[in-house]
Amino acid sequence: MPLLANVSGTAQSIPLGEPDFVMLECALQSQYQSGAAELVTQSQLVEKVLALPLMQQQFASLSPSQVAKRFAQYAEVKAISEFAPVDPPSITPKALAADDTLFDTMLDAMSQLRIGTHFAISFATDGFCAWSAQAQDFIALSALDVMVLLSFGEGKSISEILTTKAPLGVAYDTYLARISAWHQLGLLADEKTNIAKTAPVLTPFSTSTTSALPIPAKWQDALTEDKIPVYFVPHMENHFPLALGVLYSALIAYQDGALLDKFQFVPLNYLEPNALFNGPYRKFGAGVWLFSNYMWSIDVNMQISQAVKQYSGNFTIHGGPSTPDYQQACEDFLTEHTSVDVAVHGEGEITITEVVEALSAIAKPNTPHKRDIQADNHALAQVTGITYREAMTGRFIRTGSRERMKSPDAVPSPYLSGLFDEYQGRVEAAIIETNRGCPYGCTFCDWGSATNQKIRKFDLQRVKDEITWIGQNKIRVMWIADANYGLYDRDIEISQFIVDTKAQYGYPQEIVVNYTKNSTWRLVEIIKIFSDGGIIGQGIISIQTTDEQTLEVINRKNIRTQRYDELAQAFTNLNLPLSTDLMMGLPGQTVASFTADLQRYIDMDVSIKAYPTQLLPNSPMAEPGYMEKYEIKTDEHSFLTSTYSYTPADMQRMNALYDVYVMADGYSLLRYVLRYMQWEHGVMAGTLLANLLDDCQAEPDAYPLLTWAVRYFNEDKSMPSGWASFYQELYAYMCARYALTPSSPTHAQSALATVISVNQAAMPDDALQYPYTVDLVHDFVAYFTQNAAERLPLESFGPASMTFTDPNKLSIVDLNSAQYDSHQYFWELHSAVARPKSLAEFAA
Fold first, then answer.
1. Whether the Cβ atoms of residue 461 and residue 413 lie closer than 8 Å to each other
2. Can you tell me the distance from the alpha carbon of 369 to that of 740, in angstroms, rounded to the nearest whole number?
3. Helical pair 591-603 and 685-698, crossing angle rounded to 10 deg
4. What whole-number distance in Å separates Cα of residue 632 and Cα of residue 626?
5. Which of 796, 785, 565 is nearest to 675 (CA)?
6. CA-CA distance, 129 to 219, in Å (whole number)?
């Protein structure tokens, strides 16, 4: 629904219907008509509107009081003035003449169009207008034009729209010609490519693994036996549940299948909770339920666990990173979640076999649940690595710590054992491990503490066989769940094997990894392999922060920042994509230190993705003494809100600064302006971002399109009225804010104007055709790529042209459908100075 609003968001928006356009047009023409000596009164406006033929023919049901009330609403949001003449709109739009050559080319009446991405209706002295990037001018529109234009975008053909609008007086042939002209001008565009429509339709996963164990793959095929059923509760449909698969594999492999005589392991099939209860549970009855809790799954897991306990006889076991390990936290967890019988700490493969072995059943043949599951408390007390609820007393019993498995290969691969062969979920991703462990002890992370730091490798052939399985089964995305991929030479071999697998089977197409912290050359080689092999991926340096005080507090000083700098330079030299992760809200951090981190990576021209710090229950940061020492406070979702080094207001400021960064440098709306102002006027990028944020908050209507960019662009991905108006505002803001004097009235010779032109041309626009070339007063490519140590001012460079291309189809793709997981900002068009990007999935 169209809205009447100012782009800065300072006035309440008003939903508009078709009569509104007739009334607004009349008001604009009456207020700003040539020679008008005084403002037309509201009562006169009401009379004029109601006398219009279109109002009488189509909207005769509107009473004078309704029209007057609507005019009052327009005045309330300052769309029109109720008291005194106001300055007329400064826009003088171009009217389309009847003999315009734009009318020579007619569209097929069955064509389906949409409103251009940056389309917006603006007020002009005679009514309405809209910006055309093709004409580089505003195009005049009547109220009827606006009604027709705003009808596009719902999958209707031109013919359908014109037929629908015929009662308004829309002449079919006349408006077919107008629509064709608007299409050429870019006001209307072809429908965007919808990734969701072009991507392969995912179907319930089913395969047949040659090395599969001779056990049922579907719960429907499993016989009802007098055994204790063990249920595995998957939490995501589009991922194979690796953790549950490993537990399943450990249980059936335990002592050469010793548990199979007593337990029936229900096949790993994805089912919604209701289907789980109405299907397998109804068939097999009460049993043992296994949950693997993560940040993204714990809420739904606890709901299912609670539902399980509504049925008599069931026994629940919870493990995973979000099952608390610290004693008090675990007891609080068990107190809050009375449906949990056993909490498993650390690695669960061996622990689960011993816990399950300690369980038995008391038959209840005449009941729906068939049996009650009970634990041998004496046997449970001998199982290390758990906290359990003693059935008789309700006491919490915590056992000793569990030693890690000596070899992770002791548990067979769930992929190669066929445990996921009938998963039945619409699977998009598979997770593998090539090693397990982390040598670092960063306090915000539970990886090093959970695995006790020593790294153990999986057999290389097993890893390759799992990758082959993923390729053969056409799984698009592969997660490598190592803490430090690229730490070993063999990771290069594995990377090449992934690329070779894609070459043979077409899959996997995208890799998601956690790269090593203290390596340079291996990581560069790995990313080069992925890039050359057409794998979607990019170098990611998980820097988190470079602030020395914060690094000390979070126990990360053993990760050398110098290595990251070396890595960034290596990626630059090879023209490979690189981004960095930062964390907001680490203890020790301040607004100043976070701004310094932003500045550092702007200077290195490395894209930044920043994430709020979340307190993981098993991380060193969650240890009570640590939390007390650093005064850590969190919200209801465990995100840090304040520490000894920053206040809640500081945290809000960091979030706001990051949002402005995302708009300005991530999506590149100010990418070249930021660097020019820093290089030639000494305005540091971090300072400019902070000033822009403060100015748009203090006076949002002073530069409304800048305010729109700061407040809304990251979500909306559009610029109302087009890029030209935005960059004209930006030019004016820079000149006023930093006392820059334009070198001529037209700004044609201004160095800043050259930078503005480049930044504008780098923005995708569905009204333009690519490649797109701009002529520049100064050679910006030579300026931008010159040796930084000997940088010459932009005005010293002669004229040149610059070409922009769209290899990622950004101007025609619906960016609301993005690739699976990306640290890259797919927005800026490609040019000789654009950041390196891997080919986006939607352009492949």
1. no
2. 79
3. 120
4. 8
5. 785
6. 63
What is the identity of the amino acid at 282? Answer: R
Q: How far apart are CA 173 and CA 629, in angstroms?
A: 76
- Cβ atoms of 432 and 481 within 8 Å: the answer is yes
Q: Helix (H, G, I), strand (E, B), or coil: what is residue 414?
A: coil
Q: Which residue has the tokens 């209507």?
A: 701
Q: Would you state the pLDDT for residue 820?
A: 44
CB 162 within 8 A of CB 87: no
Q: Let me know the angle formed at the C-alpha of 300 by 297 and 303, rounded to the nearest 5 degrees.
A: 145
Cis peptide before 19 (omega within 30 of 0): no
Contact 350, 406 (CB under 8 A): no
Cβ(18)–Cβ(168) below 8 Å: yes
- This prediction's pTM: 0.85
Q: How many Å apart are CA 665 and CA 674, to the nearest integer?
A: 8
* pLDDT score for 809: 85
Q: CB under 8 Å to 365, separation ≥6 — which residues?
A: none
Burial class (CB in 10 A: 0-12, 13-18, 19+), 61: exposed
Burial of 602 per CB tally in 10 Å (0-12, 13-18, 19+): buried
Write the pLDDT tens digit of every residue in 107-131.
888 888 988 889 999 888 788 999 9
Helix extents (H) in 506-644: 521-532, 548-553, 561-574, 591-603, 624-629
Specify whether the backbone of 531 is left (phi greater than 0), alpha (psi in -120 to 50) or beta: alpha
Which amino acid is located at 323 in the chain?
T
In the DSSP assignment, the letter for residue 131 is E
**Greatest distance between any 2 Cα atoms in the chain:** 98
**Bridge partners for 139 per DSSP:** 94, 130
State which amino acid sits at residue 158: I
How many beta carbons lie within 10 A of that of residue 273, not counting itself? 13
CA separation for the pair 203, 217 (Å, rounded): 17
CA distances (Å), origin 723, targets 8, 73, 492, 764: 16, 30, 44, 9
Count of Cβ atoms closer than 10 Å to residue 451 Cβ: 19
Q: How far apart are CA 668 and CA 674, in angstroms?
A: 9
- Residue 579 pairs in a beta bridge with 540, 607
* pLDDT digits 0-9 by tens, 469-501: 999 999 999 999 998 898 899 999 999 999 999
Residues sharing a CB contact under 8 Å with residue 439, sequence separation 6 or more, in sequence order: 448, 453, 454, 455, 484
| Tokens standing for residue 697 | 């908050």
Tokens of 519: 């390596």
Position 85 scores a pLDDT of 47
Closest by CA to 487, choosing from 456, 508, 511, 463, is 456
If one counts every other C-beta atom within 10 angstroms of the C-beta of residue 637, the result is 9
**Which three-class secondary structure state does DSSP give residue 231?**
strand
Distance in angstroms (rounded) separating the CA atoms of residues 589 and 282: 53
Question: What's the distance, CA 213 to chain centroid?
Answer: 39
Amino acid (1-letter code) at residue 762: A
Query: Which residue do the tokens 């300026």 mark?
Result: 783
Residues 129 and 138 sit within 8 Å (Cβ to Cβ): yes
List, in order, residues 6 or more apart from 641 with CB less than 8 Å away: 585, 633, 634, 635, 648, 651
Helix (H) or strand (E) holding 674: helix 671-681
Q: Which of 508, 515, 576, 568 is nearest to 837 (CA)?
A: 576
d(CA 56, CA 53): 5
Contact 809, 192 (CB under 8 A): no
Do 374 and 362 touch, CB atoms closer than 8 A? yes
The pLDDT score that the predictor gives to residue 197 is: 46
Q: Pick out the chain residues at pLDDT < 70.
A: 1, 32-40, 81-90, 98-103, 154, 193-200, 448-453, 518-519, 536-539, 558-560, 742-749, 814-823, 838-844
The Cβ of residue 584 has, within 10 Å, a number of other Cβ atoms equal to 21
Partnered with residue 813 across adjacent β-strands are 193
